[in-house]
Amino acid sequence: MSIQASVKPVKRKKLYEDVVDQLEGMMKSGALAPGDQLPPERELMEAFGVGRTSIREALFALERNGLVSIRNGERAYVTVPSASALIDEISVGARYLLSREEGMREFQRARIILECSLVRYAASHSTPVDIKRMEAALARNEAATDAQTFSETDLAFHLEITRVARNEIFNALHQASALWLEEQRSVSLKTSGASASALAFHRRILDAIKQRDPDTAEAAMLEHLTAVAGFYWTEVGAEGDSVRNETPDPGRTARAQSKVRRPGRLSPA
Fold it and tell me: Which region ranges are annotated with the description Disordered (predicted)?
């Protein structure tokens, strides 16, 4: 295929993009700090030598990236991008990867590695309040009577495990993976026995957390997520063994981790 049919001629950078680049540079250097208000539009127009339209387009672009907040009647001020905003920036690329079989497998492996690590942490650091929240989430999952509710409460249970780390990056990654793997979840739940399997694993995982048993919790999570991936590949007519073969062995992971100093509680975000 000729590339000429798929590309457009390169255009010079637009004025507002240059304004964005310069303002971002000032934020990175510390010249503009979180909470600082930007000058009024007219002052920005004079400083950059551009019109009002270019300034407004630049501010809207910065707002989309989570770098400024714009309120009606007020000057824009500098903000710190949230974890969810940063995740949103890579969502388009993530969805493209998930449209390919190998991309889906890579995300499944990544989810397994992340959630196995988080459940180990939860088994060692959960407070009584954390455990009550997990118990309540599991009760709602067990009470679900339709596929949509089951899917939502399934995710909620996993989120409660993630929240034990008190880290917004992990929370955002969990929410993102839930969105990106939505197709896997909907397809997997069509398999006979998938819901019952998930509930049984959830109970095993929670019991291990309550017993302060990280090894058993990790092993149950690995088996659970490997089974979920297997249900998906069975439904779409492909083999899922590579997901199991390329993910960590809980026993080996536990032995390796026992040789290094355990970190303390993760710093809250």
Answer: 240-269
What is the token pair recorded at 84? 């969810």
Cα gap 199→215, rounded to integer Å: 20
Query: Residue 65 contacts by C-beta under 8 Å, 6 or more apart in sequence?
Result: 81, 85, 89
pTM: 0.67
Q: Which among 173, 186, 188, 176 is positioned nearest to 229, based on CA atoms?
A: 188
Ordered DSSP codes for 129-170: HHHHHHHHHHHHHHH--SHHHHHHHHHHHHHHHHHTT--HHH
Terminal-to-terminal C-alpha distance of the chain: 49
Q: Residues 204-217: pLDDT tens digits?
A: 999 999 999 999 99
* Residue 208, domain extent: 87-258
Q: Tell how strand 68-69 and strand 77-78 pair up.
A: antiparallel
- Which of residues 81, 111, 136 is at a domain's end? 81
